[in-house]
Amino acid sequence: MDLQNGIVSRFAQSDEVLAPFPKAVAAARQAKMPVIYVRVAFREGYPEVSARNKSFAAIAGRGGMTEGDAATQIHASVAPRQDEPIVTKRRVSAFAGSDLDVILRARRIDTLVLCGIATSGVVLSTVREAADMDFGLIVLSDACLDADPEVHRVLVEMVFPRQADVLCVDEWIATLT
Fold it and tell me: Does the keyword Amino-acid biosynthesis apply (predicted)?
C-alpha cells in the first residue's frame, strides 16, 4: 500500500529498506495469491479534497499527487503485472474512497496480508478498518516503513497484534510452504 514513487522517495533512503517489499510480492505470486496494489491519488483540480483535511489540503495547495502524476505511480521495485489491480484511494485507509472492498468480495478474499508506507498512515488505518470488516489480517512488520522508528515499533509490537498477526516477511514466507 502506497508504495508509489512520491512516497517511497520520502521514506526509503536506501534500496536495503525496500528489499522486504519485492520479496513479499514475489512470495505471494509464487504461492498464487492475488497481489493488489493500493495508491493514493487525486483527480485534477482536487474535487475530493476538503479544506478541513489538513494533510490532503496541503497537497492540493502545493500541487501534485494527481492520478497521472509520476509521484502516484507504483514504484518500480514492486512493479505490478498486467493482471494485478491497482486501487486508487482518496484518503488514508486503503478502503476509503476506493473499490478495494468490491475487488476483495468479488474474489472471495477473507484474509489480507498488509504492507506499506507509512506504518502510522495507510497501514494503521487499513488494519483498523479491515478488522472492523472482519477480515483476517497479517501485517508484515519489516515491509512497513514509518518516518518515526518508535511509532513503527509501538504499532507493530503493541497495537497491531490486537487485530492482526504480525510477522516479518521471512516468517510469513515460511508459513506458505
Answer: no
5-175 has which CATH code?
3.40.50.850
In the chain, the amino acid numbered 100 is L
- Say if residues 24 and 140 touch (Cβ distance below 8 Å): yes
**SS3 track for the chain:** CCCEHHHHHHHCCCHHHHCHHHHHHHHHHHCCCCCCEEEECECCCCCCCCCCCHHHHHHHHHCCCECCCHHHCECHHHCCCCCCCEEEECCCCCCCCCCHHHHHHHCCCCEEEEEEECHHHHHHHHHHHHHHCCCEEEEEEEEEECCCHHHHHHHHHHHHHHCCEEECHHHHHHHHC
pTM reported for the whole predicted model:
0.95
